[in-house]
Design brief:
With 577 residues, this protein is of the alpha+beta class. Helix content is 19%, strand content 33%. Bound molecules: alpha-D-galactopyranuronic acid. The site of alpha-D-galactopyranuronic acid has 10 residues, from loops. Alpha-D-galactopyranuronic acid binds next to loops.
């Protein structure tokens, strides 16, 4: 089933294409007059400018420009699917005024900007994009993207940009939640807003051409929420094996929203994760939304290739490490029946970060934007935050309480988790529904035999710590292999050694289904690491080489091992009790 444009009635202009561009370099955005910028180059949108050969690896301020026409006085808005890392937006019309539309910090999420006070005119839209790393927690460009992370932060307008003509009354958001997958009952919550108090409007909800609800609703004020329950006739549940999607349409007045949904509920019961009451064992990978040639602006064909490769390896699971994946990738996972852990950006944050109000506010914004974009996707079964941060320090606990609490408040229907790399000292596990542990026995320390022993120690410790009755996912385990590297005497960085470690890890984890709810191998494919010396020097080629495929998605020796083992274990019943 093809993925859908969200709006059939709302006028949406897609601004994707070739924009004017110039790289300004190490200058302060506040010192730049948008009307005086000289554009001397062009750049596609979406794309990462610093993944293109001319600007490869450059950090600084870049300016983009395109045309945008407003044809009437009704409200319009700009919808930006991702800008890395900090961006400021300006609109300039024939009246000579430079209108500042607003700013946004943090990549990987969608945000909107109102085009207020913009009479009909042909405008220039100018965007300043800053890809410098915010190393300073207090006034760096963006403390969500820090220099020590183990991936390259690419910059630019990396996902779509659209202009929406909203009309007098519009849908801000439609959230669809399955409340009874067998009966096909879903809860529809729609947030509306209006230019002026509209009194009433027609509301229609339909599925695949059938009207489920058609009524007139009273609307007081200029915004509100309408909630309804509807039953999908002839319901087909969504599952990893049969990922059936229904298409729901909501119309309020002249505005509309089309959404593909899957009838599925997820819950945790003891050590099991259940999808529509069926236990699932997660078999999959960590995936970065990245490619050396395209940075974070991964083209649809590569996203599709990734899904095909995950399916070819008999995966049913992908962890979106370590930030929200592109919604187009989630669309593909919905279709393919891949279960997704969706994670807000974060990487080894210290307790100092976690006590920093600016950082926490940006985390909250990122979480809100992630949930808004991903909540209607049936593939997403788990929310995650703050990969490998200092969850073993007491001072960090309020941050975990606050951010996990926010996730639960935004979406009480999915379990929440975070990946911990200090399971023996962790003081926040009780705040999660699913315990997730990252561990690298036989790679960073020990030998093959340590894999089983370490996993047993983790299980025993969690039991003693009173956390043994929750699902336990090994969210990262793996080993590095430089593509093509094989040697009789040297194991490390060789493909055979990686294959042996990954084989042992899968056998230990999936072979003990009563103890583990799943595995996410680190990682799907190799990826460029950050430019920081200490990172590059510990990563041959400047890549994190723990991919089972290389960065161009070519298989290493471990590919066949994973495929065979995931097939074998995937055929076993997932129920353990
Ligand atoms: C951590 C981290 C990953 C990656 C991995 C590694 O577990 O979460 O992003 O850096 O280590 O390769 O060492």
């Amino acid at each position: 089933m093809p993925s859908l444009a969200r709006h059939a009635r709302r006028r949406v202009v897609n601004l994707a294409g070739t924009w004017d561009f110039t790289f300004l370099g190490d200058v302060d955005a506040a010192a730049v007059a948008p009307a005086a910028i000289v554009f001397d180059d062009v750049m596609p949108v979406p794309a990462c400018f610093d993944a293109t050969p001319r600007y490869a690896g450059r950090r600084g301020l870049a300016a983009y420009r395109t045309n945008l026409t407003i044809t009437d006085h009704t409200p319009h808005r700009l919808v930006v699917d991702g800008a890395h890392h900090a961006a400021a937006f300006f609109l300039m019309g024939h009246d000579g005024r430079v209108r500042s539309l607003g700013e946004h910090l943090g990549g990987f999420t969608r945000f909107t900007l109102a085009l207020t006070d913009c009479p009909p005119d042909a405008y220039s839209l100018v965007v300043l994009v800053d890809n410098r790393i915010g190393g300073d927690m207090h006034d760096g460009p963006c403390p969500l993207h820090l220099d020590y992370f183990d991936w390259r932060h690419f910059g630019g307008l990396t996902r779509g940009v659209e202009v929406h003509r909203l009309g007098e009354l519009w849908l801000e958001d439609v959230r669809i939640t399955t409340t009874d997958w067998r009966a096909g009952r879903v809860h529809v919550a729609l947030r509306w807003a209006a230019d002026a108090s509209p009194a009433s409007a027609s509301l229609c909800v339909g599925v695949e051409g059938q009207t489920l609800l058609d009524e007139r609703v009273d609307l007081a004020g200029i915004c509100g929420i309408i909630e309804r329950d509807v039953i999908i006739p002839d319901p087909h549940p969504w599952s990893p094996d049969r990922p059936h999607l229904h298409t729901l349409t909501v119309q309020l007045g002249h505005d509309d929203w089309r959404q593909r949904i899957g009838l599925r509920q997820v819950r945790v019961d003891g050590r099991e994760i259940l999808v529509n009451d069926e236990p699932v064992k997660l078999r999959g990978f960590n995936r970065h939304e990245a490619h050396p040639q395209f940075g974070h602006a991964v083209p649809p064909a590569v996203q599709m290739a990734d899904v095909q490769l995950l399916k070819a390896m008999h995966c049913n699971f992908v962890r979106g490490s370590h930030y929200p994946q592109d919604e187009r990738f989630l669309d593909l996972c919905d279709e393919a029946g891949l279960l997704v852990w969706s994670e807000a950006i974060g990487w080894q944050h210290t307790a100092e970060h976690l006590c920093n109000e600016r950082f926490l506010k940006l985390q909250e914004q990122q979480i809100d934007e992630m949930v808004a974009a991903a909540a209607n996707h049936p593939s997403v079964i788990l929310w995650g935050i703050l990969n490998e941060s200092e969850s073993h320090r007491r001072e960090s606990r309020p941050a975990y309480e606050r951010l996990l609490g926010r996730l639960r408040a935004l979406d009480p229907t999915r379990p929440v988790t975070y990946a911990s790399n200090h399971p023996y000292e962790d003081v926040c596990f009780d705040l999660c529904d699913v315990i997730s542990v990252n561990t690298y026995p036989a790679w960073y320390w020990g030998t093959l035999k340590d894999i089983g022993e370490e996993l047993a120690r983790v299980v025993a410790h969690l039991g003693k710590a009173g956390q043994g009755d929750k699902p336990l996912v090994i969210a990262e385990i793996g080993a590095g292999a430089v593509p093509g590297c094989r040697d009789w005497t040297v194991d490390r960085w060789g493909e055979p050694h990686q294959a042996a470690i990954v084989e042992q890890a899968i056998r230990q984890i999936l072979g003990q289904a009563d103890k583990f709810a799943g595995i996410a191998i680190w990682q799907f494919c190799d990826g460029v690491t950050a430019e920081l010396n200490r990172r590059v020097l510990s990563r041959p080629r400047g890549f994190n080489n723990k991919g089972i495929l290389d960065e161009y998605r070519r298989p290493k020796q471990a590919f066949a091992v994973v495929r065979q083992l995931f097939e074998q274990f995937g055929a076993l019943p997932a129920r353990t009790s």
